[in-house]
Amino acid sequence: MHCNSFAYVVITFIISIIIDFINLIQLLAKKGKIFLNLILIMIFF
Fold first, then answer.
1. What b/e string do you get for 5-39 counting C-beta neighbours within 10 Å, with b at 16 or more?
2. What is the pTM (predicted TM-score) of this model?
């Protein structure tokens, strides 16, 4: 039972890290798109 609870904690911890990582990638992608749009505006105008 102790091993199962430990595995559960480890799995939930890994899942939370993965979710945080995905959120960070999405945030960077949004900022990256804004940055790319600014570069394109600077190039064309």
1. eeeeeeeeeeeeeeeeeeeeeeeeeeeeeeeeeee
2. 0.58
